[in-house]
């Protein structure tokens, strides 16, 4: 006969067993939320806004080399392209490259450059976004009729821009977005004109 009391099976403290399902549930919620946030971000980038790095100086003074902007890829599905919009498009001579320029000529317009000044339908175009130092007053370009479904685009830095003056019109189907917001550098964060 043993005088030692029988030992009862030992179980984990009640708080430990309750905590484990709570932790797993919390992790499940976090994974779900992260998955949803990443999925939403991908949808926004694919269908609405695309971050773009500006390369070159053709849009000075509005946009500088290496600045980062957002391009709205959806806006032209619900509204028309307007004169003076800054658009991003596939370069007509090599659609593997994209360019950023300002819309100057709309379908049906006649655009002419005389001694650096732009005329649309024989009227001087008011361009407050142009720095006078960037106008090449020594050059003129013959009038161009903008065909339906096409646009005449120019860079703001007229001395440094490779644009419609050199290679012609941009088909509307090549325009994939409107530059709307600068997010880098932080000192210049804001909407684009």
Structure characterization notes:
This protein is α+β, with helices and mostly antiparallel strands and 193 residues long. It has 2 domains: 14-51; 54-191, Ribbon (Umud Fragment, subunit A). Helix content is 22%, strand content 30%. The chain contains 3 helices and 12 strands. It has helices at 14-48, 75-78, 164-167, and strands at 49-53, 68-72, 86-90, 98-105, 110-114, 117-120, 123-124, 141-145, 150-154, 170-171, 175-184, 190-191. Strands 1, 2, 3, 4, 9, 10, 11 and 12 form an 8-stranded antiparallel sheet that branches. A 4-stranded antiparallel sheet has the order 7-6-5-8, with no helix packed on it. A hairpin with a 7-residue loop joins strand 3 (86-90) and strand 4. The relative contact order is 0.18.
